[in-house]
Amino acid sequence: GSRHKAVLTADDMANWSATIEEPQTYDYHGWTVAKIGPWGQGPVFLQTLSLLKDMDIASMAPDGADFVHTVTEAMKLAFADREVYYGDPDFADIPLDHLLSDTYAAGRRKLITGEASFDLRPGKVAGFEQQYDVTMAMLGADSKTGAVYEPTMAHLTEKRGDTVHIDVIDREGNMVSVTPSGGWLQSSPIIPGLGFCLNSRAQMFWLKPGLPTSLAPGKRPRTTLTPSLALYEGRPTLAFGTPGGDQQEQWQLSFFLRYVHHKMNLQAAIDQPLFHTSHFPGSFYPRTREPGGLMVEGNFSTAVLDSLRARGHKLTVAEPWTIGRLTAARRDADGLLRAAATPRLMQAYAIGR
Predict the structure, then answer these.
(1) d(CA 67, CA 278)
(2) Beta bridge partners of 241
(3) Residue 99 belongs to what domain range?
(4) How far is Cα 256 from Cα 31, in angstroms, rounded to an integer?
(5) Residue 276 — φ and ψ, nearest 5°?
(6) What is the pLDDT of residues 8-57, one digit of tens each?
(7) pLDDT tens, 226-236?
(8) Domain harbouring 183, CATH code
(9) Number of domains in the chain
């Protein structure tokens, strides 16, 4: 930085240390799901569970239109709240207890109908009215882009490196779920003489002041990284996750619901056709959104695709077996270890010894 000053100093690096935090958790049908706090998007998963908890997910075919539609519409509501309320809790008051409350979920659940929604609909929380108004005005709720006030980022070469995810359980029952990512190495190359690069997650800040995600010294950007751990009846049982930016939470949720409600094994739940919505502003430049947008894998049946279109979803049909990078590991009560990994694009492995 001697020739070109940036936003980091040597003191910033010297004074930084990793922190240990309590996870955010939510109880769901005998399971307790643990996620990172609102400086990431982990609570979106929990909020969506709160919306779905009183719905009969088990009665819906796991690869059927009702399942895809219901999960998608619930996700739209949770991601809308992410845009207004999430950020580093060390710098902003985050009403997460309220967002995860049964009362709040009951009111939001009424917004889910049989038709696809096209509006960005965050909930209104008492005491946060100004934050709601400022954020919605900045995003331009009726616009397809929320790129104003964003620290932009150029991709000067093809993106060849990306996020990874790892789930590990050892013989003692210790569990790790981790999603390391620096963004893209091509956008922030290795610093000559130092041997490391800086990650590019600062692009997820907003430059407009006064928001939970506004750029500030020492502050964490609201990332998309969201590993998952789950306990069954209080016993640590499951570690799972995936790379994939804004899609991480969506792919994980489909896997988890199919595993819990449809009693699939790990591999079968991962192998089910996947889908995700682009209805909300993306976390990466240029922060575009596609109201009502829904991408689905081509291995859904034609009848399901036709039903989703009839409900108003703006479908993009991807090639079969091309969406998601899910992995999962489980420890049974008797100590038996299980693992599974997506076969998609030959990028994941399940290994035991």
Answers:
(1) 17
(2) 327
(3) 23-346
(4) 10
(5) -160, 155
(6) 788 888 998 989 999 999 999 999 999 999 999 999 999 999 999 999 99
(7) 999 999 999 99
(8) 3.60.20.40
(9) 1
